[in-house]
């Protein structure tokens, strides 16, 4: 059991250790954010909540007693009232610091308050402290000059931006003969526009007493009504567990309560020390505290940010030393990723909230006895009884990317938006979450404002956290099961994948390894994901230079004769420097028609020797597809050519691939529509021969034929677009834009997969990077749509025929299930790779029925003597005296003819008697036989 180690911890409950007899606090704000009296530190306030408010007479001391004869009066009007959303101020209270009165350079440049009824004798002096905080940002300067004047005068300045604990201190002011001190508030000389005041504090003391210390940061972990359990084993703390806690009020809820909840669960709670690591380096881990807990939205606080900048690495070391860390919800704009994560884990937040969360690990210890929905598969709670924007945020600021975690709760059932995750590191564990259930205490009064559902969740959850902390301390935690990123799984039997590669131009120019990583991933996953076709969407290169084309060709060579693919040129693939001012390209020097003409998928080209406009075939999911690949800015002649091709194959499902078709606003490019952006429309280039944009292609071609899908790249912005329109036959055409090139490295290796499900209609869209091993999970990158393709189920057994073991469509001896699921071959042809060897032969012999190896087969056939391979006739010629045995229908036919010769010359041999024939059955498992001639002595 770990022992207590305070490490020189400083602990503060309130701004000063005692309440001075003659001391007052003034809150300048508005009527909706007034400091309560008493507040959570038992302090009473004087409230100025309206600019035209009458004087306060008498003033109220901090202890709540009236200060008879002392009054407070605004003598110079302030400009107006403003709010501060900085969050997490560590002195005074959130109601006092969340708003302020300000003055402005051009108007109402000075505000002032007069304090009357003070001791003018000189036997009492007064220390004055002013506070203000603002969430405005640099380079603005928000510096205020405060001047206190009585019998003497002094000044101090205070910068408001991101201020959480500093005050302007003016000590030793003596009232004038009338018993007055006036505090003047104005812009400091270097202030950009504003000066302000949020809190004014006045403390009376004897002239010989020390100057009153500035208020110190409050450690909010101590706030609450529950006594702190002992730090050693006791009835209140059976395991003797100790926790460091960091929390502060936030700008969203103005609440806190993590320390209170942990004390209720049995932990001995201490504020996290901010000036040192959370453990003593080199010490025995048994001396560490058991838990470090970070409250919701603590990341707003500059103090927290400074701590993490210094000690984040020490936190993952604390975990490694058998510690447990839990962090509650944080705002993605302040902390996009937890800074303490070890290298073995990654997580990033997104501004997405959910009213309920799905339980993905129902038997996890933290969820024992937690109230759930009736089906036991989800949970929800409210965070406030007031009508505030976050009221129903069960999961608040979720994660959208992660690795190395087990996802316990998620905003969706597929772990796309985790709400609670557990990671293991070294001997310890840690949880990161988007739960804000710790916000239970009013940050100004300390009152418990838990909702009923929030309290019902918190009681078992924090009790479970106590028990789990003991398991971590004792190294008895159960193993975790790492949750793969959504999409990182093999596809179902009968499913197949279409892969899209958009805009590889920067890879070809600067990062060819990324391009090769993409095609290598496709090659190595061609069976695991049943990849049936790959489409490149154009801008293969960036400036149409030979080195780029060499890089691109090297990347695609990985797929040659392994995975069928097609491509189109983009604007950067044409013209000098990739400017599309001509239709000249080096593409056809490296991607030669003669190479693709030999592949089974090749249909033809519009112009001999040019792959600019081509068409291709493939069969998948029991459907025949035709892929029409168009040049950048297709010409009218291209459309006419395609129209003729499509008329020949009206039953084929058509896919259009061209570089520019849809914009990122989910509308097709339409140069005639001046109401929508047309940046990068092909009509805005000088490409010769005339061009057609997306709307023109739709009207002239797509809507008239059996297209089911169009895909394009080219467009920047968020690089995504999607729409569905019915063609003239009333059938849906799905149109999709994909582009990642604006990301780091020219796209971070992301590609898009369209996974066609075995139900024959659902298509799951994913965006994946093989170099980051990461999926993009936003709704425009991860979604599904319905595309009924009309695959048959003749025997009505619920399994579509194309992968049903009851069928053998191509009559090659392999049933459709073996063809489509096991081998990945096509059930519509007996030789999928068209290499002259049937799918049945290759799958039986052990060669790859998807890899066209005709060149190697022909090499062997044409050079048999180099390999020692001969036909039966050749063997007979080489060994004229040999006996060749043939096996047919599991029978050996032996034919023996005795020959005689007087001199052993070949021409002298003659038959000696009639031939002798035998038919002998043999074991079909054996392939080689020999004949032994018995000389009569055996």
Explain this structure to me?
The chain is elongated and about 155 Å long. A 9-stranded mixed beta sheet has the order 18-16-19-20-27-26-25-22-23, sandwiched between helices. Strands 29, 30, 31, 39, 40, 41 and 42 form a 7-stranded mixed beta sheet that branches. With 938 residues, the protein is an alpha+beta fold. 16% of the residues lie in helices and 25% in strands. The protein contains 16 helices and 47 strands.
State the helicity in percent bands: 10-25%
Strand runs, count: 47
- For the record, give the distance between the C-alpha atoms at the N and C termini, rounded to a whole number: 87 Å
Biggest sheet architecture: 9 strands, mixed
- Show unreliable segments: 3-19, 876-882
* Content-based structural category: alpha+beta
What is the approximate shape?
A: elongated
Largest sheet: spatial strand order: 18-16-19-20-27-26-25-22-23
β-strand amount = 15-25%
Q: Which value, in Å, is the CA radius of gyration? A: 40 Å
How confident overall, as mean pLDDT?
Answer: 91
Q: Given the structure, what is the number of helices?
A: 16
Which characteristics define this entry?
alpha+beta; 25% strand; disordered N terminus; seven-stranded mixed β-sheet; 938 residues
Quick structural summary:
This protein is α+β, with helices and mostly antiparallel strands and 938 residues long. It is built from 16 helices and 47 strands.
Element layout with pairings:
Elements: E1 23-28, E2 46-48, E3 59-60, E4 66-67, E5 71-76, E6 80-83, H1 94-97, E7 99-104, E8 110-116, E9 125-131, E10 143-149, E11 153-159, E12 168-173, E13 181-187, E14 194-197, E15 199-205, E16 242-246, E17 255-256, H2 258-265, E18 268-271, E19 291-294, H3 302-320, E20 324-327, E21 346-349, E22 357-359, E23 378-379, E24 399-403, E25 406-410, E26 418-425, E27 428-433, E28 441-442, H4 452-473, E29 496-501, H5 505-509, H6 512-524, E30 531-536, H7 546-557, E31 565-567, H8 587-590, H9 593-597, E32 602-605, E33 614-620, E34 623-629, H10 636-648, E35 653-657, H11 694-700, E36 707-712, E37 720-726, E38 732-738, E39 751-756, E40 762-769, E41 774-776, E42 783-786, H12 816-823, H13 839-845, H14 854-862, H15 864-867, H16 872-878, E43 886-888, E44 891-896, E45 899-900, E46 910-911, E47 916-921
Parallel strand pairs: 1-2, 16-18, 16-19, 19-20, 20-27, 29-30, 30-31, 34-35, 35-36, 36-38
Antiparallel strand pairs: 1-15, 3-4, 5-8, 6-7, 7-14, 8-13, 9-12, 9-15, 10-11, 10-13, 17-28, 21-24, 22-23, 22-25, 25-26, 26-27, 29-39, 32-33, 33-34, 37-38, 39-40, 40-41, 40-42, 43-44, 44-47, 45-46
């Amino acid at each position: 059991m770990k022992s207590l180690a305070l490490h020189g911890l400083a602990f503060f409950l309130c701004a000063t250790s005692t309440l001075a007899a003659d001391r007052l606090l003034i809150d300048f704000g508005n009527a909706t954010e007034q400091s309560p009296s008493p507040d959570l530190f038992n302090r009473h306030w004087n409230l100025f909540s309206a600019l035209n408010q009458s004087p306060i007479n008498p003033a109220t001391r901090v202890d709540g007693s009236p200060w008879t004869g002392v009054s407070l009066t605004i003598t110079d009007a302030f400009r107006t009232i403003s709010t501060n959303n900085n969050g997490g101020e560590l002195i005074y209270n959130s109601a006092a610091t969340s708003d302020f009165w300000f003055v402005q350079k051009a108007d109402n440049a000075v505000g002032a308050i007069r304090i009357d009824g003070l001791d003018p004798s000189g036997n009492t002096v007064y220390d004055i402290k002013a506070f203000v905080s603002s969430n405005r940002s640099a380079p603005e300067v928000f510096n205020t000059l405060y001047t206190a004047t009585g019998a003497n005068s002094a000044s101090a300045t205070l910068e408001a931006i991101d201020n959480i604990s500093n005050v302007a201190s003016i000590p030793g002011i003596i009232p004038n003969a009338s018993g007055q001190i006036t505090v003047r508030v104005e812009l400091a000389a270097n202030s950009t526009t504003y000066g302000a005041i949020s809190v004014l504090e006045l403390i009376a003391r004897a002239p010989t007493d020390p100057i009153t210390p500035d208020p110190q940061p409050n450690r909010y972990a101590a706030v609450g009504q529950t006594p702190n359990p002992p730090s050693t084993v006791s009835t209140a703390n059976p395991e003797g567990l100790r926790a460091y806690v960091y929390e502060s009020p936030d700008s969203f809820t103005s609440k806190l309560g993590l320390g209170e909840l942990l004390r209720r669960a049995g932990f001995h709670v201490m504020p996290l020390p901010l000036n040192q690591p959370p453990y003593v380096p080199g010490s025995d881990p048994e001396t560490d505290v058991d838990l470090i807990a970070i409250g919701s939205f603590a990341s707003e606080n500059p103090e927290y940010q400074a701590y993490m900048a210094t000690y984040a690495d020490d936190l993952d070391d604390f975990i490694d030393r058998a510690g447990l860390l839990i962090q509650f919800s944080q705002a993605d704009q302040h902390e996009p990723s937890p800074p303490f994560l070890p290298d073995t884990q990654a997580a990033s937040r997104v501004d997405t909230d959910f009213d309920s969360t799905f339980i993905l690990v129902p038997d996890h210890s933290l969820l024992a006895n937690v109230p759930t929905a009736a089906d036991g598969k989800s949970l929800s709670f409210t965070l406030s009884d007031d009508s505030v924007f976050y009221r129903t945020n069960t999961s608040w600021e979720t994660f959208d990317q992660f690795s190395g975690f087990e996802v316990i709760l998620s905003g969706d059932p597929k772990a796309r938006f985790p709400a609670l995750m557990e990671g293991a590191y070294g001997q310890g564990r840690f949880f990161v979450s988007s739960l804000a259930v710790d916000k239970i205490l009013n940050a100004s009064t300390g009152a418990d404002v838990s909702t009923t559902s929030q309290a019902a969740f918190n009681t078992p959850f924090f009790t479970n956290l106590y028990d789990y902390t003991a398991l971590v301390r004792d190294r008895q935690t159960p193993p975790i099961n790492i949750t793969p990123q959504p999409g990182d799984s093999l596809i179902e039997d009968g499913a197949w994948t279409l892969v899209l590669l958009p805009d590889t131009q920067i890879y070809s120019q600067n990062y060819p390894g990324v391009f090769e990583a993409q095609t290598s991933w496709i090659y190595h996953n061609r069976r695991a994901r049943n990849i049936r076709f790959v489409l490149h969407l154009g801008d293969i290169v960036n400036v149409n230079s030979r080195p780029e084309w060499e890089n691109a060709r090297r990347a695609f060579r990985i797929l040659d004769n392994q995975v069928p693919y097609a491509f189109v040129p983009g604007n950067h693939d044409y013209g000098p420097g990739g400017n599309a001012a001509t239709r000249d390209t080096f593409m056809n020097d490296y991607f030669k028609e003669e190479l693709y003409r030999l592949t089974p998928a090749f249909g033809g080209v519009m112009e001999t020797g040019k792959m600019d406009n081509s068409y291709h075939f493939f069969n998948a999911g029991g459907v025949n597809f035709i892929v029409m690949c168009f040049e950048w800015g297709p010409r009218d002649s291209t459309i006419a050519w395609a129209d003729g091709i499509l008329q020949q194959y009206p039953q084929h499902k058509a896919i259009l691939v061209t570089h520019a078709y849809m914009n990122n606003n989910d509308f097709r490019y339409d140069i005639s529509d001046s109401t929508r952006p047309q940046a990068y429309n092909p009509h805005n280039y000088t490409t010769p021969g005339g061009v057609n944009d997306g709307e023109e292609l739709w009207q002239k071609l797509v809507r008239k034929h059996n297209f089911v899908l169009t895909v394009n790249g080219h467009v920047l912005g968020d690089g995504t677009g999607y729409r569905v329109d019915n063609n003239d036959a009333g059938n849906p055409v799905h149109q999709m834009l994909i582009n990642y090139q604006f990301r780091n490295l020219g796209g971070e290796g992301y590609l898009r997969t369209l996974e066609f499900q075995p139900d024959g209609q659902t298509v799951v869209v994913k965006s994946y990077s093989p170099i980051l091993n990461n999926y993009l999970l936003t709704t425009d990158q991860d979604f599904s749509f319905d595309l009924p393709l009309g695959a048959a189920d003749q025997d009505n057994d619920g399994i579509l025929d194309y992968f049903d073991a009851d069928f053998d469509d191509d009559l090659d001896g392999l049933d459709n299930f073996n063809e489509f699921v096991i081998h990945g071959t096509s059930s519509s042809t007996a030789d999928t790779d068209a290499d002259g060897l049937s799918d049945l032969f290759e799958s039986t012999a052990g060669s790859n029925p998807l890899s066209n190896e005709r060149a190697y087969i022909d090499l062997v056939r044409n050079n048999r003597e180099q390999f020692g391979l001969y036909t039966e006739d050749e063997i007979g010629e080489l060994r004229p005296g040999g006996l060749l045995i043939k096996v047919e229908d599991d029978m050996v036919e032996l034919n023996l003819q005795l020959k005689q010769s007087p001199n052993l010359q070949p021409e002298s041999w003659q038959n000696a008697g009639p031939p002798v024939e035998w038919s002998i059955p043999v074991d079909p498992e054996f392939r080689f036989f020999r004949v032994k001639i018995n000389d009569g002595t055996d």
